[in-house]
Amino acid sequence: MLITHSLKALLSSLKSMGRVLKGFATMSLTYLCITAASTEALPLALLGKAPPLHGQALHYFADDPATKGYLATPIDQPSKGAVILIHEWNGLTRRIKETADAFAAEGYMALAADLYSGRIGLNRDENIALVQETMQAPDQIIRNLNAALQTLKARPDVPGQVATIGWCYGGVIDLLPAKTACRSPQLETNIYESLQLSILGSG
Predict the structure, then answer these.
(1) 160 Cβ partners below 8 Å, 6+ apart?
(2) Nearest partner of 165 among 78, 73, 102, 94, judged by Cα
(3) CA separation for the pair 73, 25 (Å, rounded)
(4) What are the residue ranges of helices labelled H in 43-161?
(5) Tens of pLDDT along 76-122?
């Protein structure tokens, strides 16, 4: 009798465990499906699977000939607008250029700005040094981004709207024109006043 009772208790426990495992499996499968769907929607540049670059280097800032941005243009479709990409603390890397290509593939003229005069940080110390150097000259950053903006606005295939997107250091820079304009009313502020379209926000 005791054995029968124990077996019933064991079977009941196994059934309960089976329901839990089934629920867990369902949740896991749902999570995997959602993750897969989300992953499929992400640009290949963010997944490390971007195709070869199709944009071109662009010297857009006359004040500093060493500045070399990257311009990606839509292929086989009219431009929906334009976006200025502001790089992370290590500079205008291939990943940022690939992201510019991804914007172009969606129909946006994409100019990846270069705030480091063509330089790339290769380690933490170099990155910090580049950040500190540029943050000590915010007016230079404003002039650089205004030059990027004017370059895009001068193109007949850009239909007016221009946005910015920045990552890490670039996210901070994305907000700098507004702060700087408040401090210095004489400073050119086109880069802020014209950015009424926010594509992804600051990172």
Answers:
(1) 81
(2) 102
(3) 45
(4) 94-105, 124-135, 138-153
(5) 888 888 999 999 999 999 999 999 999 999 899 999 999 999 999 99
Give how far the C-alpha of residue 3 lies from the chain's centroid of Cα atoms, to the nearest Å: 64
User: Which of 148, 164, 145 shows the shortest CA–CA distance to 202?
Assistant: 164
Amino acid (1-letter code) at residue 19: R
- Extract the runs of DSSP E, i.e. beta strands, from 23-182: 56-58, 69-72, 81-86, 108-112, 162-166
- Give the CA count within 13 Å in the CB-facing half-sphere of 162: 25
Encoded amino acid at 73, one letter: T
- Separation CA 95–CA 81 (nearest Å): 21
Beta-carbon contacts of 195 under 8 Å, excluding residues fewer than 6 positions away, are 162, 163, 164
**Cα(77)–Cα(105) distance, integer angstroms:** 9
Q: Does the pTM exceed 0.70?
A: no
Give residue-wise pLDDT tens across range 15-57. Answer: 444 443 344 334 433 434 444 444 556 667 667 777 888 999 9
